[in-house]
Amino acid sequence: MTLRELADRLECRLEGDGDLEVTRVSGIQDAQPGDVTFLANPKYEKALASTRASAVILKEDAKAAPCAMLRARDPYLAFARAVGLFAPVSRPAPGVHTLAAIASNARLGADVSIGPFVVIGEGARIGDRTVIYPNVTIGPGASIGSDCTIHSNVAVRERCTLGDRVILQNGVVIGGDGYGFVRRGDGTHEKIPQVAVVVIEDDVELGANTTVDRPAVGETRIKAGAKIDNLVQIAHGVSVGRNVLMAAQVGIAGSTDIEDDVVFGGQVGVGGHLTIGRGAVAAGQSGVTNSLDARAFVAGYPAIDSREWRKASVLFRRLPEMKRRIEQLEAQVDKLTRALSQPERSSE
Q1: Of 145, 191, 238, 326, which alpha carbon lies 20 to 30 A from 291's?
Q2: Both 233 and 144 in a single domain?
Q3: Is residue 324 situated within a structural domain?
């Protein structure tokens, strides 16, 4: 692809030789002639001076580079799109593999691709152009939208629903039983039947081995545009808002309502029956034990305002020293108190 073609497709302003051929996207330090690189983080500006790339994607007002430039309003977004343009196409051909087991009354859309050892249950529906890789199980009555990608070893349980353009990475489980038990009089536990559904709306992506549980009543819902990383647990009855971002190993307890545009860093834990306001952010490893207002930014355990947490974390390292000083001061106060409490000797 020529730089001129790439600039047109990325809607960038080209400065340099538009006839140069580029074949891939690489990092600044690894790039070779024929590569296009990008600069979105200022800390890599020094590395740009010595890059061997044929072209660089950078901000519209960035300093000139030693190679051709594609100036973009959002260089990181342009980089992401460039990677997609150069990525090899690996979509399997449409058709149903002879080793797939498809119920007679399941409905398959046009141009679907069904791999070997896929099981699709009674009454399930698969939308147009959806790709289902080997060893996937689609339960009875489940509904999968159009243009979805379901990677190997995924399980979509009975009666659950996926919208259009949903991506499920390897090992995702949709609709496993929620964690619900009632203690009997003898101390044992009776399982609460988890018979409701999970709904995944359009343009959601779930990372590898993420699980979304079904509740006993109502639904668990992940709304359009949410992007969820690997090893995330979404418990029964949770509502995840539009365009929410969750990094790896986040855990959400049951019946919590997460509003639109919320961001959770890695290993954030959120208690049950809470409301997380729109645009709230929890830093990595935070423990959220109370509801959060819209646009709150919290950190720590229990999670508090991020600025207060940073101040407190500075003091944590000084606690041993502060303890010694307090003990010394207490000893001095005790000594002075005892001295002052003794009666004065009369002079002879």
Answers
A1: 191
A2: yes
A3: no
Token pair for 51: 């890059």
Q: How many CB atoms lie within 10 A of CB 37?
A: 29
> For strand 304-305 and strand 297-299, is the pairing parallel, antiparallel, or unpaired?
antiparallel
Radius of gyration of the CA atoms of the chain, in A: 29
List 97, 151, 189, 236, catalytic entry: 236
In one-letter notation, the amino acid at residue 136 is V
- Whether 82 and 104 map to the same domain: the answer is no
Say yes or no: 79 and 137 in one domain.
no
* Residue 345: band (very low, low, confident or very high) from pLDDT cuts 50, 70, 90: low
The answer to whether residue 189 is catalytic is: no
pLDDT digits (tens, 9 = 90+) for 155-191: 999 999 999 999 999 999 999 999 999 999 999 999 9
What's the CA gap between 36 and 277, in Å, rounded?
Answer: 40
**What's the CA angle centered on 196, arms 191 and 200, to 5 degrees?**
130
Q: 194-206 pLDDT, tens per residue?
A: 999 999 999 999 9
How many residues does the structure list for the chain? Answer: 348
Q: CB within 8 A of 108, min separation 6: which ones? A: 96, 102, 114, 120, 126
Terminal-residue alpha carbon distance, the chain? 109
Residue 180 · residue 143 · CB < 8 Å:
no
Question: How many Å apart are CA 261 and CA 264, to the nearest integer?
Answer: 10
Q: What is the pTM of this model?
A: 0.85
Q: Strand locations in 73-207, DSSP E?
A: 95-96, 101-102, 107-108, 113-114, 119-120, 125-126, 131-132, 137-138, 143-144, 149-150, 155-156, 161-162, 167-168, 173-177, 181-183, 189-191, 197-200, 205-206
136 and 243 inside one domain: yes
Which letter does DSSP use for residue 91 in this model? P
103 within some domain: yes
Tell me which residue range forms the domain holding 41. 3-86
Could you tell me if 139 and 235 lie in one domain? yes
